[in-house]
Amino acid sequence: MNGPHDDAPVLTAHRAGLVGCRACGRVWPEAQAVCTRCGSDLSPPDRRSLNAVWAWLAAGLIFYVPANLFPMLRTSTFGGLAGNSESTIFGGVIELIHYGNWGVAAVVFLASIVVPIGKFLAIGWLATVAGRPATVNDAHRRLRVYELVEFIGRWSMIDVFIVAILSALVQLGFVASIHPGPAAVSFALSVAFTMLSAQSFDPRLIWRGLPLRRRKE
Q: What domain count does the chain have?
């Protein structure tokens, strides 16, 4: 048996003639141009804003390719007499596993391979379905994916931080030295562009595709 509110209209801020501030979340009438709470400009959700999402996402994907092909670290021992070594992201994971550092290998694999690829897929999916027809459950599912992308974004630079710390600490002159490879710059740019893509996404578009009435079970 259907509940008393199964057919109740799904009222969103847009349908109520309101517009939300993306900076502080305060809701104002559509005629309002500036949020008087934080001073940000107010604009209704528009699917044309997804062009910026796709542009930043494409830039992130472009730089992610050399980030995995070129070396992330360059190590020199005894001025190169004992050999020089270079390691890519995936090569570093394999080397860590070879030396039995399974925990560190798992962290690097998740942070440098699984998380970036997952973010690319999640942002691309959100940009594809944003503003399209959806049920209330679909909208909440999209919101959870968006919040997950926002949450893991803060951990995206962990590989770059590791390279920076190693390069700063392991500078023993002739004995041993570690320097960042070209992949470090590419990876940092890929992460930055992906974060800009996520920030360009307007979460208000998640609710634009809701039907006027909920579907009966």
A: 2
